[in-house]
């Protein structure tokens, strides 16, 4: 019998679903040391939380997050709330000695990420920041190829994360548009993932030059069931001010000499979750598009010049990363990446080991994004180290 670990899920929205799925499935496909127990779900609306908990099998619900975090029977605090409260919940969880699994972006500003990392270090708890795209098998395989030297010297990183879910001017003014709740628009929401991938795959960013743009300045206030990424839905007749950008473009200078660009927008018609990267090196290139997440495109400059071209690698072999699911060619999806993250997290908890990305990675990512926001505000190049 595996030891049981009690989970407290803080939030019951879009990510609440993905995380509930992962805690439920992890033991069926991965050899993990614990059996997670879906103990208690904190939510802000009692009806929605109760419906959610019943559907996903959470034993109890609570409307009081501090009480939940401080319960003696909770081992892991899983934070899936709007970004502004990640810091308070993570610091409280660290003080209570709980291991922490937290959604991205880490927090709404660099100062908060530092507090989170300090609190987790001081308490010696395992902390994981869920930039889940690192755990797409094709992305983890790209990392292996780069480490094996298949791309040689890296010259360019191009990260584009494009969506179109808020193009309707009547899409409600959910927390995603309020700066104090989310930290920023697609810069924080989407480029946080792209910067995480770039740091993971090729290295640290030293300086940025960015332009942010807001296309729709006012939106209707949300109704009760409007506040989810997928639903849009219910709106109020009153309008409120949009406080964040709708699109953010950034040029990045990497510590290793590479030059990069990052585009993130919620106004790219037809792009749904178009999270892509292109990496160009002296020996070859790799490109990835999450909407084709089982595939990686690879160009090898050692191929005879007349035969050169990008080939598609289907990253589903039993020798590829996270090959615990089906047989080769039996493709997997978005939800599986959360199971990978939970599996790695439980292994780290058993050994009390560091897992990446964590709150220290969050610090570096948010510092870069704050530098980009400053660059856009002041219309100048900003060194990441300027952000204190
Ligand atoms: N890794 C990914 O792919 C991914 C995708 C989407 C969202 N996210 C992140 O997950 C987090 C949650 O996003 P979501 O899309 O699930 O949001 P959501 O709006 O669907 O759900 C948030 C939940 O948090 C709770 N909540 C709402 N308002 C709150 C408040 N003021 N204080 C405390 N709790 C509150 C509620 O239970 C709500 O259901 C965010 O940080 C977001 O950036 C990550």
UniProtKB/TrEMBL annotation:
Q: Which Pfam families match?
A: GFO_IDH_MocA (PF01408), GFO_IDH_MocA_C3 (PF22725)
Q: Name one GO molecular function term.
A: oxidoreductase activity
Residue ranges occupied by any Gfo/Idh/MocA-like oxidoreductase N-terminal domain in the UniProt entry: 5-129
Domain of life the protein comes from: Bacteria
The protein's UniProt keywords, in alphabetical order, are:
Oxidoreductase
| Domain GFO/IDH/MocA-like oxidoreductase, first and last residues per copy | 141-286
Question: What SUPFAM superfamilies does the entry give?
Answer: Glyceraldehyde-3-phosphate dehydrogenase-like, C-terminal domain, NAD(P)-binding Rossmann-fold domains
Q: Which InterPro entries match?
A: Gfo/Idh/MocA-like_OxRdtase_N, Gfo/Idh/MocA_oxidrdct_glycsds, GFO_IDH_MocA-like_dom, NAD(P)-bd_dom_sf
PANTHER family linked to this entry: BCDNA.GH03377
Q: What is this protein called?
A: Gfo/Idh/MocA family oxidoreductase
What lineage does the source organism belong to? Answer: Bacteria, Bacillati, Bacillota, Clostridia, Christensenellales
């Amino acid at each position: 019998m595996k030891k049981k670990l009690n989970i407290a899920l803080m939030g019951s929205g879009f990510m609440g679903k993905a995380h509930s799925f992962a805690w439920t499935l992890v033991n069926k496909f991965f050899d993990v040391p614990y059996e997670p127990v879906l103990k208690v779900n904190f939510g802000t609306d009692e009806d929605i939380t109760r419906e959610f908990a019943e559907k996903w099998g959470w034993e109890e619900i609570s409307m009081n997050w501090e009480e939940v975090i401080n319960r003696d029977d909770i081992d892991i605090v899983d934070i899936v709330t709007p970004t502004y409260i990640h810091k308070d919940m993570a610091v409280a969880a660290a003080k209570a000695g709980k291991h922490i699994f937290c959604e991205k972006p880490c927090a709404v500003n660099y100062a908060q990420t530092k507090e989170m990392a300090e609190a987790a270090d001081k308490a010696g708890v395992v902390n994981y920041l869920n930039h889940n795209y690192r755990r797409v098998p094709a992305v983890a395989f790209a990392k292996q190829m780069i480490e094996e030297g298949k791309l040689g010297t890296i010259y360019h990183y191009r990260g584009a994360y494009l969506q179109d879910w808020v193009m309707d001017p009547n899409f409600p003014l959910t927390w995603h548009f309020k700066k104090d709740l989310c930290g920023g628009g697609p810069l924080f929401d989407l480029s946080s993932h792209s910067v995480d991938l770039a740091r993971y795959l090729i290295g640290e960013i030293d300086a940025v030059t960015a332009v942010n743009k807001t296309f729709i300045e006012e939106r209707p206030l949300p109704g009760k069931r409007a506040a989810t990424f997928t639903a849009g839905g219910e709106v109020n007749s009153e309008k409120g001010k949009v406080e964040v950008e709708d699109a953010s473009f950034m040029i990045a200078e990497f510590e290793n000499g590479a030059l990069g660009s990052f585009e993130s927008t919620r106004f790219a018609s037809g792009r749904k979750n178009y999270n892509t990267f292109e990496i160009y090196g002296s020996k070859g290139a790799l490109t990835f598009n999450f909407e084709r997440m089982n595939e990686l495109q690879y160009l090898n400059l050692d191929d005879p010049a007349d035969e050169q071209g990008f080939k598609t690698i289907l990253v589903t072999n039993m020798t590829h990363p996270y090959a615990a699911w089906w047989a080769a060619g039996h493709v997997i999806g978005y939800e599986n990446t959360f199971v990978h993250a939970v599996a790695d997290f439980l292994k780290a908890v058993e050994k009390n080991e560091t897992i990446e990305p964590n709150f220290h990675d969050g610090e570096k990512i948010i510092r870069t994004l704050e530098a980009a926001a400053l660059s856009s505000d002041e219309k100048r190049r900003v060194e990441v180290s300027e952000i204190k």
